[in-house]
Amino acid sequence: MINKLSVSICVPAFNEGKNIENILQALVEQKTENVHINKIVVVSSASTDETDSIAERFAQGYSNVFLIRQNERKGKASAINAALGVISDDVIIIESADTVPDPDCIENLCAPFITDKKLGMVGGAPHPINDKNTFLGYIIHSWWWFHRNIPRFGEIIAYRNVLPRISTTTAVDEAYIQAKIVKMKYKVMHIDSAIVRNKGAETIGDLIKQRRRVMNGHARLFNEEHVKIDNMTRSSLHLLLFEYQLHSLKEACWLIGGILIEMYARTLGAYDYYIAGKNPFVWDIAKSTKNFAFEGAKEGSEG
What we know:
single chain; 303 residues; alpha/beta; Spore Coat Polysaccharide Biosynthesis Protein SpsA, Chain A; 10 helices; 8 strands; globular
């Protein structure tokens, strides 16, 4: 008989009132067999909307839901560290507050830790709810397809509780944790069946804002931790040339447009880091990703 794996979930949040009820409801209703969800810890970083009141209501209704309030917004990494201070489980999950996990997400994400003691970290599979029949929607679906197949982790991760805290100045917490786990000689793995629903940017400005921050964060990670995430993953160029499928000339044009946006955002991110010396660990929110109309979102979201 397999002993249940004890896990806790950290949900860093800043003004996530539009989705915090969706994610918490989905988390308390998770279907698990070999995984025990010990704690669900919402860390609200000086939220000014209804995030705190909704999270508090769940904390009163469910004994494993907890709310930590931060009086000052110091970035996602700081929020994660606050949760780590009250978590002592075998495995820690970090899930973005603007996502919604499928009912079996946590079980599928964490079950591999039970049988593979060399496994140190896993990442789930974000599936956007954006309409992929639009230019930006197509780009968002394409980018997350590449992320899932490289793989590059985002939105939800789980890792063994071997890091007491993470750097408070990293703007790419998943990549930072991945780098640390790999340095400790653990394996990392993508779990395609651990699906979370998310929403990509609906404006080009928000998309550039997100990708600019990620480029800056990866450059900082490489210079401070001496780890380039690309060296631990598959080639984006190989995926583009040999595995990614284009179905029309319109899609080809949209993909080229997306590549140009990515190149521009990377250039801005490099400028921010190498020339301007900026560190966006407390970042400007991409507001168009927060209007998460989840009802019926699963239809047409695969891609």
